[in-house]
Amino acid sequence: MVNLRAIVQGRAANVKYGRIEQGDRDASTALAGESRVWVNGGWSDAKVYDRSRLRAGNVVAGPAIVTEMDSTTLVLTEYSGEVDAFGNILIRPITR
After folding, report:
1. How many CA atoms lie within 13 A of 9 on its CB side?
2. What is the mean pLDDT of residues 22-36?
3. Is 89 left (phi over 0), alpha (psi -120 to 50) or beta?
4. What does the alpha-carbon distance between residue 57 and residue 37 come to, in Å, rounded to a whole number?
């Protein structure tokens, strides 16, 4: 057998996305520790956060590491990540 294709048809699932608990800008309750990271050609101290403990509205300033069971997110220096109502981390440059 060289190639096998399958087509599945059915009704689309009606999925409702849950919102996470509201917090404020302070993400310290999700702080899990610190680690040294290599960014911008040198070593920096980065805070490590547990993603499951982040709340909507929390802001994580870089350099930072956000860990979870199956992935890791790096927030670089000069960037910050803000957690939205659905738990997404929106990473943007810090404006001064």
Report:
1. 0
2. 96
3. beta
4. 25
Is residue 6 a part of any domain in this protein?
Answer: no
Q: Kindly state the tokens that stand for 29.
A: 């309750």
The tokens for 72 are 């890791």
- Identify the residue whose tokens are 């300033």: 61
pTM assigned to the model: 0.81
Residues in the chain: 96
Give the chain's domain count.
1
- C-beta separation of 30 from 58 below 8 A: yes
Dist CA 26 CA 55 (whole Å): 9
Residues 77 and 86: their CA atoms lie apart, in Å, by 24
What's the whole-number mean pLDDT along residues 22-51? 96
Residue 78 lies in a domain: yes
Q: And the tokens for 17? A: 């996305």
Give the domain extent around 50: 28-93
